Amino acid sequence: MESRLTGATRHLPRRLALGAAAISLLAASVFGQMAQADDANTTGLAVTDTTVTVGQLHSATGTMAISETGSIQAERLAIDQINASGGILGRQIKVVQEDGASDWPTFAEKAKKLLESDKVAAVFGCWTSASRKAVLPIFEKDNGLLYYPTFYEGLEQSKNVIYTGQEATQQILASLDWIAKEKGAKTFYLLGSDYIWPRTSMKIARKHIENVLGGKVVGEEYYPLGNTQFGSLTNKIKLKKPDVVFAAVVGGSNVAFYKQLKAAGITSDKQTLLTISVTEDEMLGIGGENMKGFYSSMKYFQTLDNPNNKKFVEEFKAKYGKDSVIGDVTQAGYLGPWLWKAAVEKAGSFDVDKVVAASPGIELTTAPEGYVKVHENHHLWSKARIAEIQADGTFKVVHESELIEPNPFPKGYQ
Amino acid sequence: MEWLSDFGAIAVMQGFNGLSVFCVLLLMALGLAIIFGQMGVINMAHGEFLTVGAYTTYVISTLTLHYVPAMQPYYFFFAIIASFFIAGALGWLVEWAMISKLYHRPLDTLLATWGLSLVMQQAFRSIFGAREVGAEMPEWIMGSWNPTDAIDIPKNGLFVMGLTVLCTATIFIMLYRSRWGLHVRATMQNRVMSRAVGINTKKVDRMTFALGCGVAGVAGAAFTTIGSTGPTAGSLYIVDTFLTVVFGGAASLVGTIASAFTIAQAQSIMEFFLSGSMAKVLTLSAVILILMLRPQGLFSIKVRK
Amino acid sequence: MKNAYENLLGGKQGAIGLLVLAALILVVFPLALDTFRLNMVGKYLTYAFVAVGLVLCWGYGGILSLGQGIFFGVGGYCMAMFLKLEASDPESTKIQSTPGIPDFMDWNQLTELPMMWQPFHSFGFTLVAVVAVPALLALIIGIAMFKRRVGDVYFSIVTQAIAAILTILIIGQQGLTGGVNGITDLKTLLGWDIRDNSAKVVLYFVNAFLLLGCILVGRFVLTSKLGRLLMAMRDKEERVRFSGYDVASFKIFVFCLAAAFSAIGGAMFALQVGFMSPSFVGIVPSIEMVIFAAVGGRMSLLGAVYGTLLVSFGKTYFSESFPELWLYLMGGLFIVVVMYFPNGIAGLWESHGRKWIARFPLGKQLFGVPPPKVRVFAAKPPAASPARELETAP
User: Fold this and answer.
1) Cα-flanking dihedrals φ and ψ of residue A148, to 5°?
2) Signal sequence: where (chain A) (predicted)?
3) What are the C-alpha distances in Å from A177 to residues A262, A273, B48?
4) Domain for residue A23, yes or no?
């Protein structure tokens, strides 16, 4: 069958044979490397007398690279700082960085490599829920330890994961309470990109609005990821005249959405809008003039006024350039290595079970966002903050809640 | 009574929205219609040429802001022209290096240009970074125009609309009223005969492809007013654009206009009554269904086979 | 017997080619690689099912489907649904408000298992569905498109659009499908822990044998009269039609077959990787699978497997070592292969490799024979002939 090929390649220069040889060499070197990786196998974790190896698993390429770069940088910064201050239990941290390439099976594959081949003591990584869901069974089976930095939809609690971002109720409930009180809001329009995080968040928001605030949801809808046409939506908002638009639009859609809101005359002097998906990172693309006067709810803003944060921002900019920005997830990524250090030192061991057991109750007073504490359920106690967006794209914090208990499985909200 | 006037205002704005979606779709599809319709080449990198235009606008806006802030209100016109020529020149190069070698293998151009789109996306990423960027818009293009109190007509929509009309008219004139257009149409209908009567079909192909890419560049520049610019921004539109061209009936510019209008109105109306995601699914499915019933598209040129 | 030897194995040359491939995936890989890497190869091999299907429908049939991810995905989802139901027994889901249904349904306030999921309690049904549902889907698409003589390019674009629609649907119907996260956390198959290392090895071999089986089926189809008709159609569709053949039916058949192959790959993917998500359904994975077939050689069933392995290894290797570069390489590879080596690795082997290896005594004995006899239909890329160009002009 294969012999029926003809013609087209016959007149090629002989050099091609070399090309073919090169391809086979490449294949050979791939295999060679794979074989070598096995030799490094040792029992237990990759901990020597002077070093301890950790993994970093984010997307450096692909569509998610935009978002994950900040986390990669922040985690590196924290690790460098820990190393500079003497490491953990006298050991310097070595990092194996893997690229998830915005592809969930690749994440699973690389997680497995980190845990089974590299025997890393902890992994700092993942960004999207989908990537976390893909690696979760692997972490549970191989008993690894993952520090996950993104604010997310909740409904999960694994022994092998420490969630350093907010779960949905922490981000949503306090901010809805505030906006209802501050603006006397009764009617809400919920909208988001079409995937699990916005849908779950809106579900929680709807329950809270209807059952606790006694308000009314006048519209709820989702647009496909990457959608850039929001003209019909702006008209619907004008028709329904909600007191508050509550938005969780992500990625490229974000930019189109806010530009079109402004173009349709929906600006902050006529319409209150609260979003849970705009951080400093997104702001770069959207531009402050398109969101001036709207509100964003996060646990961290770069403009937070406290000594920890001043130091953090300064160090981050010294390392990654003065134009770099720090969003909520970047800060949460920065917490990971520090929380791990504290837990390891409390446990006196790198053993995953011992570190996990030591984690609840770990406090970090040096966190840029202020004080955080690890809860029994592996999420962090943290504050919700609401900031008003300024024309220059910075965030002015207008409200700060009390420390909120994380509750990934909120009763009455499911 | 107030309710009624409100309703009227919404109807006007929704109508305008349909038109504006139509213009966006048409502007995107125009370049593709020329390339696919007239040359039979499937350019999967079309979206990336759009992105080239968007990044050109971004660069020019940044440069203007930096060096001649006084020109800021007017830079956009210059950016559109530059986008056209840069994307066009790039298209010219691509035709020369790749497409011209693949005319007899239409499906293979599809694959090769897809490879090109990967390379171009990564190039954007290397040059401009992975983050979305936004061009600083001149003040006159922002905000809305209020014919009455209740009606807001987005100015950027008006602008895109004007640009679309201009582009479409220009292309129509070029294709149907110029010597070059005559050559293009002749080449499309019968390449061998055209060559026989002395038309330099190679040159015609190259210019046609470059023009198609240039129009994509203009579309990209226009997009910076409504959307964002990122390495993969262009690839989001590719399916919609292809469907528009195919639905209209390849080789028919009128068909492309009609199909963009139908799809845009359907999308816009359904979006108003349904959720965004569902509207999208229904529109695409309807288009495919109609294509199955009428595979040659809405309009098609009758050619004796 | 002689006939089967010729048809299935393609004579001595075909048999040797198949043996080499079988030796590679059944002996060399399992011996040389640890379980982790072997599992990875297993994952790559599931894509090879799609590539083999594409050789049939694209290389031989001239039908370029840009939506093979649809079938890979549907097959994978069928298997994942069964596995998810097994993983969601009332005992392990007792913290949910409705125990016994998959966790993502519970989060979406579903209180009972949707109708669509009910039959997937049965393993027998699932096995049938894995192949039948995608094949049926392909049948519908095929009838609609080919009976009305939709052209190649139109077909490509429509399949691409269908892939886009399906992705949006799966993501939107998150209560039914798990949304963008997909169906995750699959644990056991009929009580057998598929996450175990030993299970991974067994699944690898099942996968490898199924792949070899698909290649044999493919060969059988191609050496039969149908195969020759396919090529004839690709090169001169009108003439075949005028000779009284129902061209559309042949196209539909080969498209359905390719869909079924892809679906088997998808099901094996779900088993080996342990989840299924909409990111394997859409436009990008679909087109990537076309790359595999193109690199391997669109006219070669075996080449498709090598192409898949090579590109996938390359992707893993380069994204590990030079993350910035791999998209350039991937795109560049695609351009170069399509433009200069339309017959891919298999073509290079025919034009250069065979000669080279014939310099060695053993190599000459095994591979040195020139292609046996020129078959009736030379498999030129369809339009390389000037005659074609003349003819497409009206």
Assistant:
1) -110, 120
2) 1-37
3) 26, 14, 44
4) no
Interval A324-345 mean pLDDT = 93
**Least confident segment among A48-57, C144-153, C267-276:** C144-153
Show the tokens assigned to C387: 């005659």
Opening angle at CA A159, ends A154 and A162, nearest 5: 60
B positions 142-201 inside 8 Å of A (CB): 142-144, 146, 152, 154-157
Q: Which of A4-13, B1-10, B86-95, C19-28 has the highest mean pLDDT?
A: B86-95
Domain residue limits, chain B: 25-141+152-238
Centroid of chain to Cα C150: 23
Entry field: residues in chain A: 414
Which of B20, B25, B271, B281 best probes binding to A when mutated, by most A CB atoms within 10 angstroms? B271
Identify the CA nearest to B112 among candidates A263, A396, C332, C204.
Answer: C332
Q: Cβ contacts of residue A115 below 8 Å, gap of 6+?
A: A55, A123, A138, A139, A142, A144
Question: Which residue has better confidence, C35 or A366?
Answer: A366
Residues A93 and A114 in one domain: yes
pLDDT digits (tens, 9 = 90+) for B129-167: 777 777 777 878 777 788 777 788 888 888 889 999 999
Radius of gyration, CA atoms only, chain C: 22
The answer to whether A282 touches A327, Cβ cutoff 8 Å, is: yes
* Residue C14, H or E segment: helix C11-23
For residue C221, the SS3 value is: helix
Segments forming the whole domain that contains residue A56: 43-166+305-381
Same-domain status, A208 and A108: no
Distinct helix (H) and strand (E) counts, chain A: 12, 14
Alpha carbons within 13 angstroms on the beta-carbon side of residue B216 total: 35
Establish if B108 touches chain A: CB-CB under 8 angstroms: no
Tell me the average pLDDT across A365-391.
92
- C383 vs B105, B278, B284: nearest CB: B105
Which token pair is C338?
């399509």
* One domain for residues A224 and A290: yes
> In sequence order, which residues have a C-beta less than 8 Å from that of residue C55 and are 6 or more positions away?
C218, C293, C296, C297, C298, C299, C300, C301, C303, C304
Q: What is the dihedral of CA C83, C89, C95, C96, to 10 degrees?
A: 70
User: b vs e for A318-351, b when ≥16 Cβ sit within 10 Å of the residue's Cβ?
Assistant: eebeeebbbbbbbbbbbbbbbbbbbbbeebebbb
Minimal Cα distance from C333: which residue of A? Answer: A23
pLDDT at A27: 47
CA distance C20 to chain B (A): 30
Q: Which of C279, C173, C206, C241 is nearest to C49 (CA)?
A: C206
Give the CATH number, domain containing residue A265: 3.40.50.2300
Q: Do the chains contact at B276 and A222, CB–CB below 8 Å?
A: yes
- Torsion, Cα B208 B213 B219 B224, to 10 degrees, reads -160
User: What percent of chain C clears pLDDT 90, i.e. is strictly above it?
Assistant: 23
Q: What is the helix (H) or strand (E) element at residue C379, kind and residue range?
A: none
ipTM above 0.90, yes or no: no
pTM: predicted TM-score of the whole model, two decimal places:
0.82
**pLDDT tens digits, residue range B192-228?**
888 888 888 888 889 889 999 999 999 999 888 877 7
Where do the H-state alpha helices sit in C297-385? Answer: 301-321, 326-340, 344-348, 354-357, 361-367
My answer on whether A259 and A322 are in the same domain is no
Residues A245 and A391 in one domain: yes
CB C13 within 8 A of CB C372: yes
